[in-house]
Specification:
Number of helices: 7
Number of strands: 10
Strand content: 15-25%
Helix content: 25-40%
Structural class: alpha+beta
């Protein structure tokens, strides 16, 4: 994703030369990319930041060294990144201004905590619960919800793309998985048993009689973006493997993005009572 591999170490200034964004501070928001760069480690501990893993999510303290943290600038960008259609890439500060790529994440939720600031005074801190964005696609193929109208599944999927809610860390991972399943269920229902890439029927039926299709994250193939209705498709296993491993996979993925966009545009127009 973005030409980076998890565990790759890169000089921070080279990272910004490639993607833009502020070269100081913990949260960078490039102006010309749908992307946020977040940095952990380094000197953060002296300012009261206590980042780390807890119950399967990465607890990331917002920016603001003195006084209560507010949802402005980078903190607002993190909270709203899914709704703003921006990917979130996390890096760990290393020695000599190098950073290590930790992967793409999604803000599942956030909470307030009492934590000392850089002057040692207790203050209200914002802690974001970052869940790894790479969800095993095979785990989402069971997402179809029988008997629920497509319009309701679409509403749920779109609601999953709003700003992250306030919640405790204990439910953050479940919140992220629930979001992914809402979008996956909608994609499978939208496909109605027909591959959204090759337009052929599912190659076989499940043991319960439902057509078998797989959920494919189109944006994630290229940029690590979050789950969104217009970024997820239901495809047959052959197209899925072709997109990921075929010589023309990138082209097929771009074509699929256009197919889904046209579908979503028609559905939006229909929901708004417009002629399509």
């Amino acid at each position: 994703m973005y030409g980076l591999k998890i565990g790759e170490v890169i000089r921070r200034r080279d990272l910004h030369a490639r993607f833009g964004g502020q070269q100081q501070g913990g949260i960078a928001t490039p102006s010309d990319r749908r992307l946020i760069l977040a940095f952990t480690g380094g000197s953060g501990a002296q300012h009261g930041y206590d980042d780390g893993w807890d119950e399967g999510v990465f607890c990331y303290f917002g920016e603001g060294q003195v006084g209560p943290m507010e949802f402005i600038r980078g903190n607002r960008a993190l909270r709203d990144h899914v709704g703003d259609r921006k990917a979130l890439l996390l890096f760990k500060m290393e020695a000599k201004s190098f950073v290590c790529f930790m992967g793409a994440f999604v803000v599942a939720s956030w909470e307030y905590r009492q934590q000392p600031d850089s002057k040692g005074q207790m203050r209200r801190a914002i802690v974001f619960h970052l869940a790894p964005a790479v969800q095993a696609e095979a785990d989402l193929t069971e997402g179809a919800d029988e008997g629920i109208p497509l319009s309701e599944l679409r509403r749920r999927a779109q609601a999953s793309g709003s700003m992250a809610p306030e919640a405790t860390v204990s439910i953050a991972a479940r919140t992220s998985l629930a979001r992914s399943r809402d979008v996956a269920a909608y994609a499978l229902a939208r496909a109605a048993g027909t591959c959204e890439s090759c337009d052929r029927g599912a190659p076989f039926l499940r043991v319960d009689g439902r057509p078998y299709l797989e959920v494919h994250h189109m944006n994630r193939l290229t940029d690590g973006g979050p789950d969104l209705p217009e970024g997820v498709a239901a495809v047959c296993p052959n197209c899925h493997r072709h997109i990921h491993y075929g010589i023309s996979g990138a082209r097929l993925n771009e074509e699929l993005l256009l197919i889904i966009k046209a579908k979503e545009d028609r559905m939006s127009a229909s929901a708004n009572g417009m002629q399509v």
